[in-house]
Every structure is written in structure tokens, then in C-alpha cells.
Specification:
Bound molecules: flavin-adenine dinucleotide, uridine-diphosphate-2(N-acetylglucosaminyl) butyric acid
Number of helices: 7
Radius of gyration: 20 Å
Number of strands: 20
Strand content: 25-35%
Order of helices and strands: EEHEEEEEHEEEEEHHEEHEEHEEEHE
Distance between the termini: 24 Å
Low-confidence stretches: none
Shape: globular
């Protein structure tokens, strides 16, 4: 195997943090992963770097997933089955499915990153999580030295979570996802339960939207409030929305009646981290070169020249202030390398 030595990772993470990989290899076919030399190396699997905090240099091997390809692999009376390579750009893939006449993924338009990373944290937005429309995940297991197909029923998809995020599977780079198959039902209905999406469509005077119109509305909402990483480096939401038990949520609502609360199917309640951060005084505020975005307080931004330590300093300060004011712990969403 020919590895590239000492590769700059700054262009490969959307927070634009500095760091170099001791060794680097772009993976453009699944079979490259089966090479024995990769099995023993200290590895990190990299997609689009849009959910990543780089602490500094990485003294191991970065495998940059670039496996291409997207095609219809099956069809029955109820659904289309569509496969995409792990290296495909997520947003481009979603737009391509819509252009083919296979609706379903439109609510996940404009999420950065790759198809291969989508199952890792079960990406979600505007009332849809990818696990709902996923059929199988194909992956190489470096430990068992074999390819596996994971049926969605064993992927343990939950809010920003999956089997692949759990210790032993993912964080040590055990699994490299090579392709994902989606099952898109032929009977389609727009998912409009997210209030902001319904409002956007109403403002456009669209009562019965097509999948394309839903995608356009979502793209517009996202462009209005989320910073473009090419202009203002960021990793999307920096913290999970905390989920607390019903009694705690009721207690918080008494002292803070405007706190947004979203009841979950299991009886617990999801709180809006962006609201908590804004109320703690962090919206538009910075510590050194790292701050919380002025239009969406949940998005941590690199104002220029930041490194991993700067990010961790601001993260800790925000967590401290939210805990002090509300007694709520915020857990970071991105993966730290
Ligand atoms: P990376 O950041 O490269 O990697 C993320 C993790 O996945 C790492 O641990 C990595 O090792 C692992 N990984 C990546 N590819 C593979 C693979 N092929 N096999 C095994 N492991 C792999 N997320 C949402 O859920 N909803 C949103 O609405 C959303 N909005 C965002 C908006 C912005 C502006 C930004 C910058 C980010 C947003 N995100 C959102 C977060 C991010 O886009 C997703 O988490 C995305 O899936 C990350 O993809 P990636 O290819 O960049 O992964
Ligand atoms: N809010 C504030 N102040 C802020 C930001 C938000 O008060 O600065 C309030 C809003 O007014 C609203 C609530 O918080 O009442 C929720 O805000 P928003 O609709 O913007 O969504 P979010 O909870 O901040 C989540 C996801 C996003 C996803 C959107 C749309 C998480 C951690 N984040 O954000 O995902 O795109 O909903 O579904 O679940 C990501 O994971 O990177 C990401 C961007």
C-alpha cells in the first residue's frame, strides 16, 4: 500500500482546524480495505469532516472514504431500493434521488458530508431521521476481516445515535461503511410536522407540496440560519438537544415558561439546546477565535485561526454556563480526533 505521509487535514474538516495525518490513504474501492496492512494500523475513517473536531496532529492512518456510485438496485410493488457508495456527497445524492422521481429523503437536503457517514449518527432534520428510510449498511470489519451487510433492524438507530457510534465498533475505526441501501416507499406523503417547515410552505402559498418543493423550502430555511462552512467554518449543531425526564422538564418550564420542549415517544422531553445557550448569553459571543453563531446559538464557529484547544475552551465555557443557569448538561455532537 502506498500511503501519503504527513498530510494536511485542515481542508478536510469543515471547522477548518489545523492538524496533519502521519499517513493518509484515499479509499475509492471497497476492496482496498481488505489489505492486511490496514488491519493493524491505528486508523481514523474520514468522510467529509463535517462532524469532526481535530485536536491537532494524528499519529496514525487516515482513510478518506471516496467510494463512488449510485444506482437503483431493486424495486417491488411497495418501494425502490437505491444504493450509494460511502464517498458520495449526501446532498447531491438526495437531489439525484428526487430528480429520478424517488421521493423520501427531501427533508435531509443540504446536510453536509458523505453517504457513508449518514448512518453513523443517524442524521436527522425537519422531522426525518435517515434510519427511517435506510435498508442495509454495507461495511468492512477490520477486526473480523470480512464484509458485512447490516440490516436496519440491528443498527439501533436513535436520536443522533446508532450501533456504529458505540464503543468497540466505531471509535477505534473497527468498521468502515462502504455503501448504503435506502428503501424509498412508492406511496409518498410530505413530512410537514416540523413547524418551521410548515410555516415556510405556507409563506410560499404551497398547500400540497411536491418532494422538490419540500426540498426547496428546507434549503431556504437552512441557508437563512446556518452558516456556510466555506465562509464561516463550523460543524453544524455543536451539542445534542438534551433529553430529560418529564418531571425535570416540568420543573424547568415553571421557572422558564418559554423554554421549547418536545415530548418524546418514551415519555421523556427533548429541550432546545440553542435556546439554553442563547439564554445563557452565548448567542453571538466568542472566547478568542471560537464563538457561538449569531443567528443560531447551537452552532459553534471558527472566526479564523482557531485550533482544537480553542474549540474545547469555548465548548467547556458554554457547558459550564448552561449547567450553572439551568442544571442541564450539554453533550457535544461532533466526534473528537
Ligand atoms: P465526518 O465528519 O468525516 O465523520 C463523522 C464520523 O463518522 C467520524 O467519527 C468518522 O470516523 C465516521 N465516518 C465517516 N464516514 C465513515 C464511513 N464511511 N465508515 C465508517 N465511519 C465513518 N447533522 C445532522 O444530523 N443533521 C443536520 O441537520 C446537520 N446539519 C449540519 C449543518 C452543517 C452546516 C454542518 C457543518 C454539519 C451538519 N450536520 C448535521 C453534521 C454532519 O453534516 C453529519 O454528521 C454528517 O453525516 C457528517 O458526515 P461526514 O462525511 O462529514 O462525516
Ligand atoms: N433556538 C433559540 N435560539 C437559538 C437557536 C434556537 O431560541 O439561537 C430555539 C428555536 O427558536 C426553536 C428551537 O430552539 O424553538 C429549535 O431550534 P431549531 O429549529 O433551529 O433546531 P435545533 O434544535 O437547534 C435541530 C438539529 C439540527 C437540525 C434542525 C432541524 C440537533 C442537535 N440539531 O437543531 O441538526 O438541522 O433541528 O431539524 O438535534 C446538526 O445535527 O448538526 C444539525 C444542524
Amino acid at each position: 500500500m502506498l500511503f501519503e505521509p504527513n498530510v494536511d487535514l485542515a481542508p478536510f474538516n469543515t471547522l477548518a482546524l489545523p492538524g496533519r495525518a502521519a499517513r493518509y490513504l484515499a479509499i475509492s474501492t471497497a476492496n482496498q480495505l481488505a489489505d492486511g496492512e490496514l488491519a493493524t494500523a491505528r486508523r481514523f475513517i474520514l468522510g467529509g469532516g463535517s462532524n469532526l473536531v481535530l485536536s491537532g496532529d494524528f499519529d496514525g492512518l487516515v482513510l478518506h472514504m471516496a467510494i463512488p456510485g449510485k444506482r437503483l438496485v431493486g424495486e417491488d410493488a411497495e418501494a425502490w431500493y437505491i444504493e450509494a457508495g460511502a464517498g458520495e456527497n449526501w446532498h447531491d445524492f438526495v437531489q439525484w434521488t428526487l430528480a429520478q422521481g424517488w421521493p423520501g429523503l427531501e427533508n435531509l437536503s443540504l446536510i453536509p458530508g458523505t453517504v457513508g457517514a449518514a448512518p453513523i449518527q443517524n442524521i436527522g432534520a425537519y422531522g426525518l431521521e435517515v434510519g427511517e428510510l435506510l435498508h442495509t449498511v454495507s461495511a468492512w470489519d477490520f477486526e473480523k476481516r470480512a464484509f458485512f451487510a447490516f440490516d436496519r433492524s440491528i443498527c439501533r438507530f436513535a436520536y443522533r445515535d446508532s450501533l456504529f457510534k458505540q464503543e468497540g465498533w466505531h471509535l477505534n475505526g473497527r468498521i468502515a461503511i462502504t455503501a448504503v441501501v435506502f428503501r424509498l416507499p412508492k406511496v409518498w406523503q410530505p413530512r410537514l410536522r416540523y413547524a418551521e417547515l410548515a410555516q415556510e410552505l405556507a409563506a410560499r402559498q404551497i398547500a400540497t407540496p411536491s418532494a422538490r418543493e419540500v426540498a426547496n423550502a428546507i434549503i431556504a430555511i437552512r441557508q437563512r440560519k446556518l452558516p456556510d462552512p466555506a465562509v464561516t467554518p463550523n460543524a453544524g449543531s455543536f451539542f445534542h438537544n438534551p433529553v430529560v425526564d418529564a418531571a425535570r422538564a416540568a420543573e424547568l418550564a415553571t421557572s422558564h415558561p418559554t423554554l421549547p420542549r418536545y415530548p418524546q415517544p418514551d415519555g421523556r422531553v427533548k429541550l432546545a439546546a440553542g435556546w439554553l445557550i442563547e439564554q445563557a448569553g452565548w448567542k453571538g459571543k466568542a472566547l478568542g477565535p471560537v464563538g457561538m453563531y449569531e443567528k443560531q446559538a447551537l452552532v459553534l464557529v471558527n472566526r479564523g485561526g482557531a485550533n482544537g484547544a480553542d474549540v474545547k475552551r469555548t465548548m467547556a465555557a458554554v457547558q459550564h454556563d448552561v449547567r450553572a443557569k439551568f442544571g442541564v448538561n450539554l453533550t457535544p455532537e461532533p466526534i473528537f480526533l
